[in-house]
Write a structure and sequence with these properties.
The protein has 260 residues and is α+β, with helices and mostly antiparallel strands. The chain has one domain: Deoxyribonuclease I, Chain A (4-Layer Sandwich), CATH 3.60.10.10. Helices cover 28% and strands 25% of the residues. It has 8 helices and 14 strands. The strands form 3 sheets. The chain has a 6-stranded mixed β-sheet. Strands 5-6-7-8-12-9 form a 6-stranded mixed β-sheet. Strands 10-11 form a two-stranded antiparallel sheet. Helix 1 links the parallel strand 1 and strand 2. The radius of gyration is 17 Å and the shape is globular. The N and C termini lie close together (6 Å).
Length: 260
Amino acid sequence: MKIATFNVNSIRAREELTIEWLEKKNPIDILCLQELKCEETKFPKESFERLGYKIAVNSQKRYNGVAICSKRGFERVKKIFDIPVLDEQKRLIEVQIGDIIILNIYAPHGESDENDPKHKFKMDFYDALKKYVSALLHMNERVILTGDMNVALANIDVYDAKVFENRVGFLESEKQKLRELLKIGLFDCFREKYPDKKAFTWWDYRTAAIWRDEGMRIDYILSSAKLLKKCIEINVDLWTRRRRSPTPSDHAPLVAEIAD
């Protein structure tokens, strides 16, 4: 099973790119998309259905939004969590595919000023997510949490730690929240597989940073221990990013192969 996480930074702007990637370059069984920037009725379902996907979408107009496209269908889909900070914005969706629970997340961006309400919202979001996933892990041994976490966890996850010092996405308070999430029983599949490898999933549009590989690793596939053992391979697919047409996202997909 191939599973991928991809922040498309507008699915309508990235429809052609994503479909071409799936058709010609990297067929994916389960594709988790973030930052859709459109309501569900505007999601280009037909293009994905033509490739054999079933689609589950939790989105809103202009901002945020997540979707899961699955060639294996869904046993169930959950979009409402009855937790205000998780439901306030369309940033989380949960599905069951076979006996695997998959949560797709687009974490808040936050602010570098830790007194800013956006920073507090990010901290509260992570606290609520940790509590929810902890309960989920007590009931299920096969869980994947994937998506854009908007945090680079360690110096190896950025091209230059000094450049990112005191910047949003690399604040110690943000790293601590992600560490706490991992401590409940989740594992960073990429780092577990490649403890010393530098690889990024996001590069700034404004500075043409992709061509110098000046990026951050902020997109993750986290899994429970049982699924970590089944992770055969995991890598960033740069095909969608190192191009000028179709217009790329500022992120690249992270793709994992998991044994059935």
